[in-house]
From TrEMBL:
<comment type="similarity">
    <text>Belongs to the UPF0312 family.</text>
</comment>
<feature type="domain" description="Lipid/polyisoprenoid-binding YceI-like">
    <location>
        <begin position="28"/>
        <end position="197"/>
    </location>
</feature>
<dbReference type="InterPro" id="IPR036761">
    <property type="entry name" value="TTHA0802/YceI-like_sf"/>
</dbReference>
<dbReference type="InterPro" id="IPR007372">
    <property type="entry name" value="Lipid/polyisoprenoid-bd_YceI"/>
</dbReference>
<protein>
    <submittedName>
        <fullName>YceI family protein</fullName>
    </submittedName>
</protein>
<dbReference type="Pfam" id="PF04264">
    <property type="entry name" value="YceI"/>
</dbReference>
Length: 201
């Protein structure tokens, strides 16, 4: 996914610059669902934010330390794992008004391009599929570091963010407010906090 910057006190790298010393991160990784959060924020009743996440996901990354443009990502999200802190709201979101999880149990992201923006910043573009509709999504990413955990796993971590208009994926249910406006915003903020483990050689 091109996540190959490292925080230090040196001057920021020029846009697109890649540290050749980080070539050791090149390889294939599996997303660790126990330490990964894919979240979202929606505006509710025009006045507050409702936050939620999907607690079950899987996927793979291919990271290329020398050429981030060759990095790729494939992520599957289990839609029934949605959690907003309210069982009634979660049941509604799984229903035919929203995600239709009986018919469309999985949301997917498949990368199509990646680029280094310099330093710890990267950008990945790909195809996001919800309710059988596929549209492009661009995610801005920040590399959080690489480490070997106590069990010998080589890990990388990163945070990402993006925004979508849910109506573009067929998520159009809403309710009008007496004071004007609607119950649920069309704009949804997406957040990614991902830990991935390098595959054994």
């Amino acid at each position: 996914m091109g996540l190959f910057g490292r925080k230090n006190d040196a001057a920021p790298a020029a846009t697109g610059a890649v540290n050749p010393d980080l070539a050791a991160l090149t390889g294939d990784y599996a997303i660790d669902p126990a330490h990964t959060t894919i979240g979202f924020v929606a505006r509710h009743a025009m006045v507050t934010n409702v936050k939620g996440s999907f607690t079950q996901s899987s996927g793979t990354l291919h990271l290329d330390g020398a050429d981030p443009s060759k990095s790729t990502a494939s992520i599957d999200v289990t839609m029934t794992s949605i959690d907003t802190g309210s069982a009634d709201r979660d049941t509604h979101l799984k229903s035919s008004d929203f995600f239709k999880t009986d018919e469309f149990p999985t949301m997917t992201f498949r990368s199509t391009s990646a680029e280094s923006l310099g330093g710890d910043d990267y950008r990945m573009t790909g195809d996001l599929t919800i309710l059988g509709t596929t549209k492009p999504l661009t995610i801005d990413l920040e590399f959080n570091g690489a480490a070997t955990d106590p069990f010998g796993n080589e890990r990388v971590g990163f945070e990402g963010k993006s925004e979508i208009l849910r109506s573009e994926w067929g998520l159009t249910w809403n309710a009008a407010l007496e004071t004007g406006g609607v119950l649920v915003s069309d704009k949804i903020k997406l957040t990614f906090d991902i830990s991935a483990i390098k595959n054994a050689a």
